[in-house]
Amino acid sequence: MKILVVYDSLYGNTEKIALSIAEVYAEQQVRCMPVKGFSASDLTAVNLLVAGSPTHGGRPSQGMKDFLNSLPAGSLKNTQAAAFDTGIPVEVKKGFVRFVIRFFGYASKHIANALKKNGAAVLAAETFFVLDKEGPLKEGEIERSKKWAGELLKRKP
Question: Which pLDDT value is given to residue 97?
């Protein structure tokens, strides 16, 4: 199976999650890369695309948006996909930030929708938590991301 993990990371937290996901697929043909290095040829014969971004105002980062917009129309047909993001848990913050998260949600659902619109069979969307805007990751999130990645291979679209 050919797997591509593509991510955008501003403070290194999303990159850590992406690398841990790719580690789970070490026995497969896996490539893990930032969105800035992506070209459409990277999608050739990919069976599973896992895309991740930090959450900003309930949306993916600009780099992830640019990646999603750069995908050739229909290029994900016959491809399974999953989306993830990193974000602040609602219970950690008070005031306006808490309201924004509850109202807008997290980036993974927007990434998943964009992948689906491009023809992918989306298996899952997940949020991994950071304790503040710049991190660090909440304790246990690396392990949780590895478990999530392993479960993706068992899912059917």
Answer: 54
Q: Is residue 157 part of a domain?
A: no
Q: Report pLDDT digits (tens) over 56-74.
A: 888 999 999 999 999 998 9
Spatial separation of the C-alpha atoms in residues 137 and 126, rounded to whole Å: 15
CATH at residue 77 = 3.40.50.360
pLDDT at residue 103, as a whole number: 58
Is 141 part of any domain? yes
- DSSP string for residues in 41-67: GGGTT-SEEEEEEEEETTEE-HHHHHH
If one counts the domains in the chain, the total is 1
Q: How far is CA 84 from CA 16, 89, 95, in A?
A: 12, 14, 25
CA nearest neighbour of 65 among 20, 115, 16: 115
CA angle 74, 24, 64 (to 5 degrees): 40
